[in-house]
Amino acid sequence: MIGIVTDSTCDIPEELVQQYGIIIVPQYIIWGNQQYRDRVDLTPAAFYQRLESDPQHPTSSQAGVSDFVQAYEQAASRGATEIIALTVSSAMSGAYQTALNAAKLMKMPVSVVDSKGPTMTLGWQVLAAARAAAGGVDLPGILTSLEDLRKKLVQFVCMDTLKYLQKGGRIGNAIKWVGGMLQVKPLVYINHLTGLVEPASLARTHKAVVEMMYARFFDCLQGGKKLHIAVLHGNCLAEAEQIAQRIVDEFNPVELLINMTGPVLGINTGPNALALSGYAEE
């Protein structure tokens, strides 16, 4: 039996986490002198409400070795004889290295995978691993399929401001935009080779940047079939649902998920951010 472990930046809807028995390792939010476990002690909705009203900006901290060891032991207690642990991009967080260090303390084999991205870039790989394991695919087969999937993944994120990306320190190569440009609406994408945030474009209005994201995302899918798409949002569910309905009407995906971006990532993207993440099977 192969156990699946990931960190809380995966943004997988809770019903799927439960369905596949995925074990989530919470990252941490530091807000003043308080520490919260991502999505456990601090819900996404409460996080965004406070983010807009609290003058103190939160920071994040990665889970520790003991957190990952506890998750691996939980998988073992459920009967796992092998574990696949998938983490947010190593270019954005030390979670990958921490998961590796924890794996060295285990007697059973633990394969640690760098997803090369955040949110549903990680989430889609976790779901693919869980579904393959449930279908009886062996460990080498799952790891090979994840490499293939990563090459197909596309993710774009649009934000209302660069402010949060800059404060959060996860701006990657979009750093070139900083300097008197905080009033523009940035569009970035995830480079799944480097795991870095890359600048895509800028817009003057929210509507324009959302349209730009939509067009660029589907251009990158290149007319592929059997689409798996996630719409992520920074506490703006109504707009996310509108985008999802448009996707259904225009592309009829085989799988469409909507979820709120969690606190650890929300620190960097801010309220009203939107993201599209997905891939084409064919």
Multimeric state? single chain
Radius of gyration: 18 Å
Report the average pLDDT across residues. 93
Kindly report how far apart the N and C termini lie: 29 Å
Would you report the number of β strands?
13
CATH topology of the largest domain: Hypothetical Protein Tm841, Chain: A,domain 3
Shape: globular
Numbering strands along the chain, what is their spatial order in the largest sheet?
A: 10-9-8-13-11-12
Q: SSE string, helix = H, strand = E?
A: EHEEEHEHEHEHHEHEEHEHEHE
What structural class results from the helix and strand content? Answer: alpha/beta
H/I helix tally: 10
Number of structural units classed as domains: 2
Main sheet characteristics:
6 strands, mixed
Kindly estimate the percentage of residues that lie in beta strands according to DSSP.
Answer: 25-35%
Q: What is the CATH architecture descriptor of the largest domain?
A: 2-Layer Sandwich
Uncertain runs with pLDDT below 50, 5 residues or more? none
Helix content: 40-55%
CATH top level of the largest domain is Alpha Beta
Brief rundown of the structure:
The chain has 282 residues and is α/β, with parallel strands linked by helices. It is 40% helix and 25% strand. A 6-stranded mixed β-sheet has the order 10-9-8-13-11-12, with helices on both faces.
